[in-house]
């Protein structure tokens, strides 16, 4: 049973990492297109507060909203969430330090990824429950 809990924990951490990428990528796309959260709210048919919550990490858009954003910016949903695909993720969306971090992350094994995600959670002030690495 513990192994399934670990797998679920890994999936949740990966999902939160993708959501972090989504927030950063959306901010960069908006900046490049000189758009505000009001523009995004109008595009998606949501309130300004809801759009702002997407960018601050308080809420996650559903798949339909992600599709609308992807169509609007002429990118894929995979690109929006930072999911690596056969075509590489344009690194110009990330700062130099973020690019360095991505390069390091690519070489981590699963255990190191989990530890890193736990550390990131701590930096972001989220509660992190330690994982029993021995089992």
Please explain how this structure is put together.
This protein is mostly helical and 135 residues long. The chain has a single domain (2-123), classed as 434 Repressor (Amino-terminal Domain). Helices cover 64% and strands 0% of the residues. It is built from 7 helices and no strands. Helix 1 packs across helix 7 (110-123) and helix 2 (37-44) crosses helix 3. It starts with a helix and ends in a 12-residue tail after the last helix. The model is unreliable at 130-135 (pLDDT under 50).
Q: What's this, in brief?
A:
The protein has helices spanning 2-32, 37-44, 48-56, 63-73, 77-80, 96-105, 110-123.
Calculate the terminal CA-CA distance, rounded to whole Å. Answer: 11 Å
Strand fraction: under 5%
Overall pLDDT: 76
Pattern of helices and strands: HHHHHHH
Supply the CATH superfamily name.
Answer: lambda repressor-like DNA-binding domains
Provide the helix percentage. Answer: 55-70%
Assigned CATH architecture: Orthogonal Bundle
- Supply the number of structural domains: 1
Poorly predicted residue ranges = 130-135
